[in-house]
Amino acid sequence: MSKCGITVQITHWVGRRFPVPIACEFSYDSADPLAVTMILDSDGEYPVRWVFARELMTEGLTARSGQGEVEIWPTHSEGQRALWVRVANARTRRIAFFEMPAQPIAQWLASSYALVPRGREMAEVNWDKLAQLIQ
After folding, report:
1. What does the alpha-carbon distance between residue 23 and residue 48 come to, in Å, rounded to a whole number?
2. Residue 22's beta-bridge partner residues?
3. CA-to-CA separations, 119 to 71, 103, 135, in angstroms, rounded
4. Which candidate, 3, 52, 64, 106, has a CA 20 to 30 Å from the CA of 29?
5. CB neighbours of 135 closer than 8 A, spacing ≥ 6?
6. Spatial CB neighbours of 125, under 8 Å, sequence gap ≥ 6
7. What is the sign, positive or negative, of the torsion defined by CA atoms of 49, 53, 58, 60?
8. pLDDT mean across residues, the chain
């Protein structure tokens, strides 16, 4: 089992003009090869965990991707590349927007693909272990 992770400072936009800096942790575990985990406010008292497809984040580096609970898209301004992540909770109808630097996220994703290359995700699944969990 192989893992890689990164912690970055991101901006939680509360309204259009109220930026709140928070720590955000991204992790990838080859034991769950299709998913990435994002922990918002990872240094805070009440961190929030979102798990979504690694492919969603990869696509979000170059174009808007996702729908529903998680959407990701790139922006460029003043020579800076950023990623925006929108998370929504259908049950509570709450939506939050986060802005983060694109370069460290792209490098971390490249590390995850070094662990499990694109297209090889299902080859990494331990099917015997999964079958035992089902029984």
Report:
1. 11
2. 10
3. 22, 23, 28
4. 64
5. none
6. 33
7. negative
8. 90
Q: Which residue, among 28, 12, 51, has the nearest Cα to 105 in the 3D structure?
A: 28
53-86 tens-digit pLDDT: 999 999 999 999 998 899 999 999 888 899 999 9
* Burial (0-12, 13-18, 19+ Cβ within 10 Å), 133: exposed
pLDDT digits over 87-127, tens only? 998 787 889 999 999 999 999 999 999 999 888 787 866 67
As to burial, measured by CB atoms within 10 angstroms (0-12 exposed, 13-18 middle, 19+ buried), residue 62 is exposed
Nearest residue to 81 via CA among 73, 89, 71, 69: 73
Sole residue written with tokens 């950023």: 82
Distance CA 78, CA 87 (A): 25
- The span from the CA of 1 to the CA of 31, in Å, is 6
> Residue 118 is inside which H or E element, if any?
none
Rounded Cα distance between 26 and 48, Å, is 12
pTM equals 0.84
